[in-house]
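Lab notebook, page 48
Experiment: co-folding of the full assembly
Goal: obtain a model of how the components sit together before planning crosslinking
Operator: M.T.
Materials (sequences as entered):
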Amino acid sequence: MFCTQCSTPGSGMSDFRDAGVQLSDDASDLAEIDETQGVGGASLWSDAWKELRSSPVFLVSLGIIILISVMAIAPGLFTNADPRACDLSNSLGRPSAEHWFGFDLQGCDYYARTIYGARISVSIGLTVTIFAGLLAVVMGSLAGYYAGATDSVIARLTDIWFAIPTILGAIVILSLLGTRGFFQVSFVLVILGWPTMLRLYRSSVLSVKEQDYIEAARALGASDFRILSKHILPNAIAPVLIYAAITVGVIISAEAALSFLGVGLQLPAISWGLMISGAQTRILSAPHLLLFPGLFLSVTVFGFILMGDSLRDALDPKSR
Amino acid sequence: MSVMEGGQSPEGGVFPLDYDPTAPLLEIEDLHVEFRTRDGVVQANSGISYTLREEETLAIVGESGSGKTVSAQAVMGIIDSPPGFVTKGAARLRGVDMFSLPDHERRAMRGERIAMIFQDALTALNPVFPVGWQIAETFRAHRGTTKREARKHAIELLDRVRIPGAKERIDAYPHEFSGGMRQRAMIAMSLALDPEVLIADEPTTALDVTVQAQIMRLLQDLQDETKMGLILITHDLAVIAEVADRALVMYAGKGVEQGSVKEIFRNPGHPYTLGLLQSIARPEQKGGKLIPIVGSPPDLLRVPSGCPFHPRCPYRKDVCSEVEPPMTDTRPGRASACHFAEEVLSLGKR
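Observation: model returned without errors.
Model output:
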């Protein structure tokens, strides 16, 4: 969804307000001031925020994301148990009143491990999205704003990169690495994940740079850096933001998939993917091993994808 | 505080260019602009020349596609390149040829010495920022003014362009302004740094007639205050008759007639100008017929040979399709690019 219309405010409500102002001649404009001020300065972003505040989808996704983030930052709030204090005598213990999620093969408290698993999943999701997004914005700005050779080089590079399947590429690269921790997995996912966002941002820049206010800014002597950062970025970033929210979810599930396949994180790291991986041979005998991390993973991914959807609705009202 | 730019040389201190205060304010000489498109080279401007003095209003008139806007963009240095290129000519501001300056020096001149306003102020203002912020931004970018100072200047400017309640309106967004106020805000923004030359590209075309008059009066008043030279690009002959001192009539990327507005309107020296004047309604010719110019403007990829206007010209002779008439002086301060300029002039006063 290329949201070329996002940059044009004055949709919905504001159209009426705008029309109202235009009808009045300048002499009666004074009287209008209080009215327009009362409605509040409505930019694209504050309009979007107003819409988001009353969107149930957004509030649910925000709730999920806040909950998971608190879990990632302060797991101690949710459990007193130490996820690494394991007692083999509890091995594969079923869920009970004291131990809600039961125990894993090593006899570790599964609830504690599930809670602690949020940290690495969320950090990988956010880290990869932020770095891929930065890369996309910088390269996309260069490609979109400076047409010609710069664009050709970056666009072709992106096309080639785009042809590498993300998961397959990640499996190949990661299986070559001896140690695979947070850094390696994130790095590989950033390397493979930037092309889509770059293409989005580039096309967004291409449409925004044709706007009159860019020409006006140039006519007033603004430098390329200023034009790119102050005039193009805020008008072109919306599609990337929407996609970024979804990307966080996608990356979290990609990390789980890689860990499940044995090329992601390695023990003793605590991650949902690793937990699901450990459950794969005991799905019938100990289904709780799959159920709980799977549920947490799905809900988290769902939360970020919902967030992306509600952002899209708010930033591009025409897409509904 | 963001990266500084403009106004000052990298060495710090005064602007390094040698402006000659005795030279004409703006002198455009033999400007050629071409667009290299897939279909071929479009000669958007071929040989435009004019001079603008301080306090003077020069109107550039012509149909859509005659190259008026391109000539302004070329002077400003904001043509998208590629595909647009200035291939020949000079644009001297107080004797300094802007085309020969390095990019950063040209950029520093924009806004500071020469500024431009656009047809549709709604699209020429950034929709995501309050109007006041955008005006203040000009100060911050060029002068490194502090936020608070810049905001104060912005309010003063909004006052100067007669936006009522400037203090309250400064935080409003462009779409909360009426069409006329947006154009006022745009004017405030371009006058922020006191440029000596202001190019107004169809500043009133998007506005209704009463607001048009207000905006033109505002521009004239500001011109009286600042002594700036004003280039008014328009196809509205009524506006020109009202405010411009001199006019340059453009056709197919070339200047075809030049001179004082009064004389051109009273006694046109080029068949195209004559055609333009005959095709507008005037109160005194009540009941008379309007005479349109036959045909349509040429495709700039295939400009007719000889005089570009000859296929549409009612006075054409054989020579017109063969030899391109140069711009020649016909009367003191007047010039026309027509083989038969004298004959057209002798068609009489209107």
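Interpretation: Chain A touches chain B through 44 residues (CB under 8 Å).
Next step: discuss with group before ordering constructs.
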